[in-house]
Design a protein that fits this description.
It is built from four helices and nine strands; from the N terminus they run E-E-E-E-H-E-H-E-E-H-E-E-H. With 139 residues, the protein is an alpha/beta fold.
């Protein structure tokens, strides 16, 4: 057991139709988990968020970067200078500021560290899915 308290959600939802064999959860908010637990250290592709208190900007950045994954992140602030400063230091493939999941297919999307390989969208995707070859021919 990792500890922590589920503040809301986290219970199974029964759905019908072609998804009835799936496993679905109500969105969960969890507090009181140690930063070293699996819930905080691994990617969870589901409706789960944990709350981690911090006192300084440095501590917040260290918490965010203290994992081996870096697909995406969000920064919520009314201070745009702080947003820019923090976004530059976050080790994530994309940083959303005061928003979430606003995709623009003209821009690259992908993670860093152990989150994905390459980029989708933009010129980076074209380079990623293209294998360069040098052919040298002498007559």
């Amino acid at each position: 057991m990792e500890g922590g308290t589920i503040l809301c959600g986290g219970t199974q939802v029964q759905v019908g139709g072609e998804c009835e064999e799936g496993y679905f959860l109500r969105p969960a908010v969890i507090e009181g988990l140690p930063i070293s637990c699996r819930t905080n250290q691994e990617e969870i592709f589901g409706p789960v968020v944990t709350l981690q208190p911090f006192d300084t900007e440095e501590e917040a950045i260290a918490l965010a970067n203290g994992v081996q994954y870096g697909l995406a992140s969000t920064v919520w602030t009314s201070n745009l200078q702080r947003a820019q400063r923090v976004a530059e230091r976050l080790q994530a493939g994309i940083v959303w500021v005061n928003c979430w999941m606003l995709p623009d297919l003209r821009t690259p999307f992908g993670g860093v560290k152990h989150s994905g390989v390459g980029r989708e969208g933009g010129w980076e995707a074209l380079r990623f899915f293209t294998e360069a070859k040098n052919v040298c021919l002498k007559y």
